[in-house]
Amino acid sequence: MYPGKAIRLNRLFDKKTHRTLIIPMDHGVTGGNITGLRSLTDAMEDMTKGGANAVIVHKGAFRLPVESDRDIGRILHLSASTELSPKQHAKVLVSTVEEALRLGADAVSLHVNLGNAEESRMLSDLGYVTETCERWGMPLLAMMYARGPGIDNEYAPDVVGHCARVGMELGADIVKIPYTGNAENFADIIRCCDIPVVIAGGPKSETLRQFLETAHAAITAGAAGLSVGRNVFQHSDRRRLVRVLGRMIRRGISVEESLALAEGKTPL
After folding, report:
1. Annotated catalytic residue within 106, 145, 173, 179
2. List 26, 46, 106, 173, catalytic entry
């Protein structure tokens, strides 16, 4: 690994635990002015002051000022689609690795939907991006999902494991996959993946407890961290929740401790 890539990767992970809390906030391109991201500047400021390791944003967000006494890693998201399209799961490249370098990004991310009619083109994009990242020493986080007409259950262990394997074997440095719902089979997926695995937050959980249970189970199973969006930035006290998740990831506190902290029953 080139020194430049190692330096950038180190900015995304806690130096003691080698774990990470990444908040994706690229949802505005996909869904418009969604709750929690109506002001992207405010959301980025809350994630920064809450102590997240990094945020995932599109290129326009790199221009936004963030008032904070600490820095935060910024990952440039390279692909996009919108819910207005009849092919909303067909992601296309909208930025480049070279652009990420000019913007000062610490890493780039790319979304690939396996099982989609456009799978071959998205895999070609992934191959192109991994080669370019290697040339410039830029880390790549690959968001790997199974979304298409032939996918019965995108959370099935064999399906999620296949997604992780594709990301790893095609050159990603970090792979983001859905949680399977079972710590044992998720741990097996992680054992078969030789790069750090972070879990996707998915749709907003019905309760905070449900979200915290999922996060804790994934970390216990061996995940290197979380890459969760709606369940964080749509929370009523998201800055506090980021601090709580940081403690869970870095200190291993329990679900009950996390819930008490998040609900303000225990002081942070």
Report:
1. 145
2. 26
